[in-house]
Amino acid sequence: GAGVSQSPSNKVTEKGKDVELRCDPISGHTALYWYRQRLGQGLEFLIYFQGNSAPDKSGLPSDRFSAERTGESVSTLTIQRTQQEDSAVYLCASSPGTDRNTIYFGEGSWLTVV
Amino acid sequence: GENVEQHPSTLSVQEGDSAVIKCTYSDSASNYFPWYKQELGKRPQLIIDIRSNVGEKKDQRIAVTLNKTAKHFSLHITETQPEDSAVYFCAARAGGSYIPTFGRGTSLIVHP
Question: B-chain residues within 8 Å CB-CB of A104?
Fold first, then answer.
């Protein structure tokens, strides 16, 4: 079946603007993750959704970042008042939510703030 | 929370040589250790994983070893090929958590 799908693949935005990044997880996957990857850096955890439970927002770097998920489907990551340091690849991932917990990544959304 | 250290940050080898990437973790409750490969401009993909009840796991040219006492685990790639060139990430996940913590990555370059 289809993998994790993200859009847009690339986004250039002006400093101060808001952006929305979308993630379609693999069908049936109850767990969804957002990670940030700055150029040449590792994977920085942002937020985790599991079914209808309250999300784990412990990785969000500031209150300019927020994310929503509708049930066990699409998720949107919103960055308000973007700053240049927000430039990065934003990776979404999903997993079945079982103990096996292999997570599958999307191709990412490359955000450039100018 | 969990902290994962990964070394080296860059590894350059000749085709046919072996490559070893090492990671340490801080949380003794961690029980799941996946390795991901990320080719340039591509998504990270799982290549092998190991659970804490196993000391070693092999899959063709790749193997992972785990030392729970020392809290470190390693990726071994034998007979490296140019297509092995990529960034490799280790990760650790504690029992009761579904959020893996990733290392900073190792850029492996295999010279033909």
Answer: 46
